[in-house]
Amino acid sequence: MINKTVSGVQEACQGVKDSMTFMLGGFGLSGIPENSIAELVRLNVMDVTCISNNAGVDDFGLGQLLQKRQIKKMISSYVGENAEFERQMLSGELDVELIPQGTLAQRCQAAQSGIPAFYTPAGYGTEVAEGKESREFHGKMHILEKAFEADFAFVKAWKGDAAGNLVFKGSARNFNPNMCGAAKITVAEVEELLPVGVLDPNQIHIPGIFVQRIFQGKNYEKRIEQLTVRKRS
Amino acid sequence: MINKTVSGVQEACQGVKDSMTFMLGGFGLSGIPENSIAELVRLNVMDVTCISNNAGVDDFGLGQLLQKRQIKKMISSYVGENAEFERQMLSGELDVELIPQGTLAQRCQAAQSGIPAFYTPAGYGTEVAEGKESREFHGKMHILEKAFEADFAFVKAWKGDAAGNLVFKGSARNFNPNMCGAAKITVAEVEELLPVGVLDPNQIHIPGIFVQRIFQGKNYEKRIEQLTVRKRS
Amino acid sequence: MALTKEQIAQRIAKEVKDGYYVNLGIGIPTLVANFVREDIDVDFQSENGVLGMGPFPFEGEEDPDLINAGKQTITTLPGASFFDSAMSFSMIRGKHVDLTILGAMEVSQNGDIANWKIPGKMVKGMGGAMDLVASAENIIVAMMHTNRAGESKLLKKCSLPLTGVNCVKKIVSNLAVIELVDNSFKLLERAPGVSVDEIREATEGNLIIEGEIPEMKL
Amino acid sequence: MALTKEQIAQRIAKEVKDGYYVNLGIGIPTLVANFVREDIDVDFQSENGVLGMGPFPFEGEEDPDLINAGKQTITTLPGASFFDSAMSFSMIRGKHVDLTILGAMEVSQNGDIANWKIPGKMVKGMGGAMDLVASAENIIVAMMHTNRAGESKLLKKCSLPLTGVNCVKKIVSNLAVIELVDNSFKLLERAPGVSVDEIREATEGNLIIEGEIPEMKL
To answer: ipTM for the complex?
Structure first.
């Protein structure tokens, strides 16, 4: 068993540099790599490109990097919850590439899988298709999309072990598994780092081969964006 | 919850006809849909095309359909364990398309995922690439492969529930999950059909949306092809 | 009288059939779940990785690891499953989801839809909408017939950046139920008390009116 | 003396480094696992969906749901995982596997390999070999230097249908360790007691011999 454990977030982020491209898991604030994001803020890496479905909220998640103007370019599908983001984008300070959510997931998956390009119907006939090849299959138009290239992927899992095996919980799974192994180095932070052999081999979502560094995360805030509840009747 | 349960293999195979294309899960004899194969033999459907990594052995698995000359064409990656297969192929009675194993898996996955085509490096410069488009990405040649089209997918899981959710065991998983939802109708046979709600939603390998019919399989033989053991010292 | 948002959702709920997997967009579409008949089996898919969504949690039982595509806390029903984003869009692009219900800023008479961007002003992103409209065989749009200035949102041609082309099959607005056929909006039903003339007035695109147009039943 | 199959495996095992994920082909490559140093961490991947393969099971403990790519019953080690075939080839095509060891019928001096078909005679199929050789950055071939008729299998150009082009980096045969460089076979080591002349004799393709060629250490 190849040991992927590092001492903590500082060792996990070694090699992170200005102008790199990062992938970050999470949907909204659910399943985001909170520890890694905090470390990227602390390291003050500048001019980075972030591939992430959303951009956090003003003061949490990727919003923290936006506040410090660390991000040069965002590749996302939906950024509606972040006023600072919208301001930087509309003023031209921030370069933004908005792409369909399924295309974002599949471009991560393709990078993980050694598939350099694939066809999808999403976005045909829209701005998203501009400058891209299109082609008909079964009477329907599709566009050619390419695998992402990134330096680091930062993901957050529920449980993990020293071999780098990961298990996710609920809808906090989202893009995290698709980003594992999709960048040169994959850093996984976990809520619970278990001894090797505890996780059922049938029930591992991401085998350790896709993960280079794993550490036990700390102080998860797990902020809720839209608290919706019903009254007990 | 949408109920996918059918009474048994006969109801599960309703609509199966001559000249159809079937996908069948399994690697060697591990994880093959034994009940469905037996029913296809009994129904005596002829001139079928089978997409399956292997072709069984002479008297088990797809070998049973080969013996009865029910198969017109096989699409597989490895057929080395079946003498009758090799005879029919070399004599020209059987049409055979051999393709790389990863390409086979990905063409299933693409069909499941609504991806009509993708690029892979596998097979470039070989017979497999003949008649296919090729293209360079990152200085390396790739060929364009297309999603499969099939009428039925027959898969075998370890556990399942009435919603069609599936869990697989060990290396019996193999192609089974990739074929779910990759054909017009997916038939799943399971060793254990559980009440809905018993399976942990975090631990479902294939959500029921990819499965149209599910039934409790019977009398699994689970034949071992290469029994290899070590002595206790 | 024009329908309320709840009534639009209520009318759309009648389009949801037994055995359907349904994806609901943010806004009015989310409300549809509240009105689906209880005697049919329907599963709700959320593109962030949930199949078998249930109602909102009771107070104090919310889980930050369990949200829908609108980032709202939710629950799941027995038979539910969680999965990653790539698999979620396998369900969507692979046409395993039977019905997609989503909002729109504009729809054109050929079925184009615009709902993700107002250049220079509002740029929230398309989220999963482009994948949904490009893939779904059955798309119903929930929308207001006109904007706040009273201008039609059912147009000959969309003015905003498109989300998808030639894809909308049906519209339920606050004024009418409309089917998209023959490069036209075909009027099927009127909101209770709303006249055909009012609908014609509010529709910029080509409107087909054949015979008596019944009032919706809610 | 020429190496036995076990000795070829033993020599190849020295190429396996700490922290490597390794895919072993059927035949001689499978034997490599028996000779890997015990003080390094290595994980074996099997393309049918297993990472962390262990030794064969004890008699009576075999499980038909747990086999390797050669269809042999196996066990797993702590930290192992199971996955589907698509994910397995994500590992392979995605270059997550560090070393691929496989057999060959022929290798040409430019690194082409043929190992899946003899037209009109033997057609077993390529299995995962085409994916492996097209993707792996580090491929070692385990093979006999000559066929039963004594003819070289290290050729100027392969005569059999190819499995992959320009991909083999190293060969360990029963006679020699060879590196593929400059469109040639470069002799690195001789099997104990085998002369350079014997190797030259058995190699049809261009053979580079520079300086003294040491004997292998096993």
So the answer is: 0.97
